Amino acid sequence: SAGTISENGDFALNGELNNFDASWIHTWMPEVPLFTGGLDLSFQSSGTFDDPRGRATLVAHDLGYFDGTNAVKVPLSVELDEISVSQRAAALHGQMSYQGLSAEVAGTVPFAGLYGETDLREVMVTATVDERPLADLSPFFLSIDKDRSVGTVNGLFGLRGGWDTLEMFADMRTHGTNLAFNGQSTTLSEFD
């Protein structure tokens, strides 16, 4: 990493961080939940501390969270290949994978609210799942009979709201000829 910082707050920085301990984010910003895992970051940034600008890429691996007693691993990987920062917000784009289910990630994250400042803009990050066979949902919905179910699913899920009012949302769409459940002989046919 290299860069300059002036007494009046102007800066120009660029560099790379490899296998950065994600728990340090909570140490610096206690409002952010305690995450575990590693982060690889490449960045170029300039401006002032009040109005930073820049571009970055981020790969998150071995992710988890702290449940109050233990670190819980999450089978999630995230690769944000484009992060741009301006007007005190980050625009994100990339890919994520959770237990083999992959999705495109996009969104905007204003960060002034993290510092206790009023920012009426909301966090909005979505992950779009392309159309895939219903059987791919069987690890998440154990009742789906993956051998007898014929159809597809797509949709999106995400986070939205202020830093203190974040909520998760989802929109799934299914289409197919047969939806069957383990231990049940009755199936749902021709569904949309």
Helical residues, percent: under 10%
Q: Strand percentage, roughly?
A: over 45%
CA-to-CA gap between the ends?
53 Å
User: How would a crystallographer describe the biggest sheet?
Assistant: 12 strands, antiparallel
Helix/strand class: mainly beta
Low-confidence stretches: none
Instruction: Give the helix tally.
Output: 1
Radius of gyration: 20 Å
The best one-word shape is elongated
Mean pLDDT over the residues = 88
SSE succession:
EEHEEEEEEEEEE
Care to count the β-strands? Answer: 12
Mind explaining what this structure looks like?
There is one protein chain. With 192 residues, the chain is mainly beta. Helices cover 3% and strands 63% of the residues. It has one helix at residues 23-28, and strands at residues 2-5, 10-21, 35-48, 52-66, 71-73, 76-86, 89-98, 101-110, 123-133, 150-161, 167-180, 187-191. Strands 1, 2, 3, 4, 5, 6, 7, 8, 9, 10, 11 and 12 form a 12-stranded antiparallel sheet that branches. Strand 1 and strand 2 form a beta hairpin. The protein is elongated. The termini are far apart. 8% of the residues are buried.
Question: How are the SSEs ordered, and which strands pair?
Answer:
Layout: E1 2-5, E2 10-21, H1 23-28, E3 35-48, E4 52-66, E5 71-73, E6 76-86, E7 89-98, E8 101-110, E9 123-133, E10 150-161, E11 167-180, E12 187-191
Antiparallel strand pairs: 1-2, 2-3, 3-4, 4-5, 4-6, 6-7, 7-8, 8-9, 9-10, 10-11, 11-12
